[in-house]
Amino acid sequence: MSGGSSRLWLSLCVAAAILPPSGVMRHAAAQSEAVAVEPADLARRDDLVGKLVTIDDRVRFFQNHPRTGYDELYLRRTPIAFRLPPELRPKSAPRAPGVIVQGRLTKDNDRLAFDVTSLTLQPSDQERFDKAVGALSAKDFENRKAWAKWAEKRATDFKDDALKKRAQTVEAEALRIEAEAKRVTIDAPDEWLKLAEEARRRKVPEPDPSALAHRAFRAKLANATSADDLKAVQAGVERFFPEAAKDQSSGAVPLGRWAEDYNNDPAAYRSAPAAMRKPLDRRLWADVVGRLLETQAAHDVQATLEIIGRAETLVPERPELIAKLVDQAQTQARQNLPSLRYAEVKSIGALLRDRANKPDAALEFYRDWLKSQRDRLSATDAEGRVALASRFEELLQDADSSRELLEKAWKIAPGSDEVAEAFKLRNYRRVGEDWVRDAPLSPAPGAEAASAPAASPNQGLRGKTPEEVRNSLATEPTSRSFVGTKGRLIEQWIFVDTRQKRYVNFLLSPGDLKPRVISDYFLPRQGL
């Protein structure tokens, strides 16, 4: 083909290049009756024989025969010869890398051939793709997706990494345009999520699929009104980001300025550094789970205490959530404070002290509950006062209130073995009708440190478990005794030294997991 002919053919290529692949432009003018097929289908589909078809492929070479010239064309993705009529035979081999041919597939004696009726040379796939996409309107996501699919197929077939990368870029651009176009639809979050899932399936490069998923889930979270809604959002997040639920280490990563940017607009995910994406995925999951836990904890005290335990396991990076749930549990408990069980009281107080970091609030809660229990005692309830005396000692270390309750119990039931035993365990002895407490003594001056089980009685063991007492004193008791009544067990450990005895009393009440020290004092040994 002469240079003039080549330029004419290439000018035709430019016109053809701005048209989308056959069958993908929705608003194009009426198409010819030719059927667009893949080159490889020519050799494996008998139904194509005799039909008018169009083939779009890269050129392998033009075949030159001595008498007939360049009368055959061979393409890259099919072994079939394309026979050119005299009017379409070039004078010299064209240098165009691509071609669109139209004609009919024939079969002679089991040999397939293609009789060409029209031929249009094409520039390189990259040039053709860029010109086609450049001619589209700014909002035309449909044809962008179609051209991207065309380019990705060609890139895969020809192992063209540059073309594949360009196709993925255009597909991501089409994804963003389509998402914006669907922003005003009624089911925009669902549409966004479908687009994100499709992009993930088509392996559109990150962060575009995940950024669109974040946008969808954020909108769904904002619209959720029930626990079931939130569970559905949680399940969706876990499907799209399967690592987020277990990735507690990412939850501890400081987000810096990206936290505020993401709060203002989830689209900030797309511009965040790659190192921030997993922490933002975890942030999304934790926000959904946090809302769900708050919703589920709105019923009663026991449910809230259980939810707090789940929150500590699932989202330990959210201390503010745990503190909020603790306050919620306290508020619920105060609505019916007198009927609250002792185990629940201890749990809420410990949470206020240790999780919400509010020790004063814990003490106030204990005081209010103890007052409600005291107000409920009948005028003749001696046993209730004995039990409540131990509660005052354990929760508030309030020995004065404890003694007052025991004295009232003794007046109600003078001579009661249970009341008498309660006094004795607290180092009181009976003098007439009164109970008098012997003052605890410190170790004798000058005694060696090893002669006493504890370095100083002022340190105290109140609230400790038996294991903790053993660790503190580094010794076993000389003897033990037990007193049980009304489901409560009092265990006394006695440590005998040269000059004194140390008494450590434990109380185990219903609902407690372990006994704890309620009193710890020293007495001199008799006869010294």
Task: Describe it.
- The structure is a single chain.
- With 528 residues, this protein is an alpha+beta fold.
- It contains 19 helices and twelve strands.
- It has helices at 3-17, 125-134, 141-158, 161-181, 188-201, 208-223, 227-240, 248-251, 257-264, 268-271, 277-296, 301-314, 319-334, 342-354, 359-376, 382-396, 399-412, 417-425, 466-473, and strands spanning 35-36, 52-65, 69-75, 81-83, 98-108, 111-122, 428-431, 434-437, 479-485, 488-496, 500-508, 516-524.
- It has a five-stranded mixed beta barrel.
- Strand 9 (479-485) and strand 10 (488-496) form a beta hairpin.
- Helix 3 (141-158) runs antiparallel to helix 4 and helix 7 (227-240) runs antiparallel to helix 11.
- The termini are far apart.
- Residues 1-20, 22-31 and 440-459 have low confidence and may be disordered.
Total strands: the figure is: 12
Strand residues, percent: 15-25%
Tell the overall outline.
Answer: rod-shaped
> Whole-number radius of gyration?
43 Å
Q: Which secondary structure elements does this structure contain, and how are they paired or packed?
A:
Elements: H1 3-17, E1 35-36, E2 52-65, E3 69-75, E4 81-83, E5 98-108, E6 111-122, H2 125-134, H3 141-158, H4 161-181, H5 188-201, H6 208-223, H7 227-240, H8 248-251, H9 257-264, H10 268-271, H11 277-296, H12 301-314, H13 319-334, H14 342-354, H15 359-376, H16 382-396, H17 399-412, H18 417-425, E7 428-431, E8 434-437, H19 466-473, E9 479-485, E10 488-496, E11 500-508, E12 516-524
Parallel strand pairs: 1-2, 4-6
Antiparallel strand pairs: 2-3, 2-5, 3-4, 5-6, 7-8, 9-10, 10-11, 11-12
Helix pairs in contact: 2-3, 3-4, 4-5, 5-6, 6-7, 7-11, 11-12, 12-13, 13-14, 14-15, 15-16, 16-17, 17-18
